[in-house]
């Protein structure tokens, strides 16, 4: 498979929303472990509200990423709080994140070539 075709297949053009959500989550976890609510809050704050995750969207993605061994979840008991599952990136998750970031750059370069805009 040539590099151009590989980049397109990494993004799964038919599943852009899924690919985008997974990349946002992996990217946020790259700076350290977080539980689900922290992830959702941080993503919403960093994006000025553009990327908001509801529980019904976020947790199935986290479970999928965990099943694929891209993240690990650990149950933690905090003082005066109930148990929370904290997620962290695995080495495979870091590698996948870098591949996804490259695929997204390629996608947007091609997208803006088609619509007549130049990327920075």
What does this structure look like?
- The protein has 120 residues and is α+β, with helices and mostly antiparallel strands.
- Helix content is 60%, strand content 13%.
- The chain has five helices and three strands, in the order H-H-E-H-H-E-E-H.
- The chain has helices at residues 3-11, 16-29, 36-46, 55-67, 91-115, and strands spanning 34-35, 71-77, 83-89.
- The chain has a three-stranded antiparallel beta sheet with strand order 1-3-2.
- A hairpin with a 5-residue loop joins strand 2 and strand 3 (83-89).
- Helix 2 crosses helix 5.
- It is elongated.
- The two termini are 28 Å apart.
- The model has no long low-confidence stretch (mean pLDDT 87).
Main features:
single chain, 120 residues, alpha+beta, three-stranded antiparallel sheet
Specify the structural class.
Answer: alpha+beta
Overall pLDDT level:
87
Ends: how far apart?
Answer: 28 Å
Helix content: 55-70%
Low-confidence stretches: none
Characterize the biggest β-sheet: 3 strands, antiparallel
Strand order of the largest sheet: 1-3-2
The fraction of residues assigned to DSSP E strands is 5-15%
Please tally the helical runs, counting DSSP H or I stretches of 4 or more residues: 5
Rg calc: 16 Å
The coarse silhouette is elongated
For the secondary structure, the number of strands is 3
How are helices and strands ordered from N to C? HHEHHEEH
